[in-house]
Design a protein that fits this description.
By secondary structure, the protein is mostly helical. It is built from 3 helices and 2 strands. It folds into 2 domains: 31 residues, no CATH class; 78 residues, no CATH class. Helices cover 55% and strands 5% of the residues.
Length: 110
């Protein structure tokens, strides 16, 4: 896959097939399209976070329990990708909103 300033090259040295679609290597997606990359990295993880938090929402948890659920089962899924890539601001806001509203903490002052 051509990267950096060569990303628009169309030659095929050595007769290799050079892909135009996203490639996954060692758990990391490489793509020419930043929106697709962000979708792979963050949007899917946020949807999974929402499912996880919804499954715990019905339980009568203390604030400490809610925080542990968010940290253990929620944010841990985003940590790896966040350590490698810059997170777009709208994904940060979406994650914050999801966490605060999932456990009924959305109306409190921060």
């Amino acid at each position: 896959m051509w990267l950096g300033r060569w990303k628009n090259k169309s030659d095929t040295p050595f007769g290799f097939g050079w892909p135009r679609d996203p490639i996954k290597a060692l758990g990391i997606f490489f793509s020419y399209d930043e929106d697709k990359t962000n979708e792979f990295y963050f949007a899917e993880k946020i949807r999974n976070l929402e499912k996880t938090l919804n499954s715990w929402k019905k339980r009568n948890l203390t604030l400490y329990g809610k925080i542990n659920i968010v940290k253990t089962f929620g944010l841990s899924k985003l940590i790896y990708n966040a350590s490698l890539l810059a997170i777009p601001e709208h994904f940060i806001k979406e994650t914050e909103k999801l966490i605060l509203t999932s456990f009924g903490m959305g109306n409190r002052q921060r």
